[in-house]
Amino acid sequence: MKYTRSDFPDGFLFGADAPAEMAAGLDMYRFSVRWLDILPDGRTPDTTALDGCERWIDQILAHNLRPCVMLDHVEIPTTLNDIGGWRNRDIADCFARFAEAIVARMGDRIFNISTSNLSVERPGDPRTEARSLHHQLLAQGAARQAMRSYGMVNLGTDVLLPDPVVLDAIFNKMYPQSLLDRLGDHLPDNWLDDFTVIAEPIDWCGVSAKVNSDIDPLMRTAREYTGSLPLFVTLALGTNSDQSNELAAVHAALDRGTPIKGIIVQSDDTNTLKTLKLLTGDCNRPAPWIRPKGGLHAHWNLVADIGGTNTRLGVVTEGKLTDLRKHPTRTLDDLQEALHYLCDEIGTRPRAVVAAGAGPVQNGTIRLTNANLELSEDALAKATGAHHTYVINDFTAAAWSVAEITGNDIEILQGEATPPLGTRLVVGPGTGLGVGALLYSEGHFHTVSGEGGHVGLSPRHLDEVEVFSAARQIVPECFFDDTLTIEAEMFLSGTGLPVLYQAIGITEGQINVTMRSAKDILQDAQDGSDACAVKAARIFTEHLGAVMGDLAVALMPTGGVFLVGGVAEKNRWLFGQDFLRAFNAGGRFSDLRKTMNLYVSEQGEFGIVGANNFCKNALLR
């Protein structure tokens, strides 16, 4: 029987993967894009290759064809082969970068996009075969997540029937028993956890099969896996007789309710394609494809600065902060709800989420010291659907806040008007005393995490000995053994300044010294209305300067030393000549200290700025 377009449902699409000029007159044109071409080093997109791909898509559109892209993962970049190829789990993120590069550049001109059939490495080596298969599926799921973060829709995968591996993985979050019996012992550790990514939903399914008169594989695919999802059937045709038989099988499957949306013909036979174009003709031709107005939205990232009282959520588009929300810091459920609500409001998933908070980070989880809250990267992914999630210490964020700082963002205490490029030290007296370092090496910044706020602080002058002794009565647990050395944070922070003030009161013979806030103490010190407050401010200033000078000598931050945080921002009067004298007093190294660049950062929301800078750097790695 000879079929025409009118024998198929309205909107049914016919396509080919032959040269575009040969496919002209059909509805779709499918072509593969090689990972090796777009990301030759596995990480950095090749702009020349992207330019060529973009021109090719424009040529397809010029022939009134819908561009259908298949992401080819068979030939991987050489550098990734060097680290084990598909045996290495990290390769999944690299494949997602490949997908991002395509969608970010030309996603608004692509009708649909899919991942290709699995390839098997070393079929005689079960360990390699198992890990290769698993990591390919992980990479495909990661790619779909990455593309959706740009607002890309019409994402699919191509499967070779009757192999159920891909379909079971996506729709059942499990491998078929036959595969587990053969390779289950060789799958990577915690492989089941990866199905949260592997099972990233598809919008349609491409099936490749020699259907001929056997339509059962098509019907079973819809019945057992894809349901009402559209199917696109790839037909490998060699002759016109093949075409007639295959079309008859597709038509029979349609008659039985199989939701086939279109076919893609694989053939380099000119007569076969000519016959296909004749039967499709212009009768009942689908309406022209209308590209999304305005193209895809720019991808966005979500950054969070989680404090003891408030959490700030920032929306970052094209590297710039475009929206900032403030929420009370309560429970993990409240935070996840706020994140989920923001994502729903925007309508798409963020590409990446970075959350910064005060506390140590271990195995992707942070326990916030100033809030009864534990937050993991997995929880961020669950709440937002982001492909990349990071939790970082608040002073990792503080260090990153000065990565792109300019002369307009600082007050100069000492040194050059513009911070030079180089390693940078950040110190922030706030609720606690934070210390962060941004190391500069080979053209890139790297953070070093630590707890510099807990170094030792000892009396600098004889009249301070009794103050330190009195403080030992108040916070004995913060002293080093039986010495007069105390954790620096217990004097040099918003929490510690009241302890220092109380200790001074004890030395002045005051009984039951009232515990006062750091804000009130500094206010009284500034206007001179309270002698104990004045002395507390002097000790605070000199010791903070000395600690910062010592840290600077240890690190040698050629890019500058920066004060950040609320105390520095609201009490500039503290950082005058007494502070500078203490910073520069270093014995034989005093002259060296005087050459160091010293600044107060005037950046608002430095935690958000730092989380954003961290995010940009992490996504480039």
Automatic annotation (TrEMBL):
It holds the Pfam family Glyco_hydro_1. PANTHER family: GLUCOKINASE. Keywords: Kinase, Transferase. One of its GO terms (biological process) is glycolytic process. One of its GO terms (molecular function) is D-glucose binding. It comes from Ruegeria halocynthiae. The keyword Nuclease does not apply. This is Glucokinase. Belongs to the bacterial glucokinase family. SUPFAM superfamilies: (Trans)glycosidases, Actin-like ATPase domain. One of its GO terms (cellular component) is cytosol. The lineage of its organism: Bacteria, Pseudomonadati, Pseudomonadota, Alphaproteobacteria, Rhodobacterales.
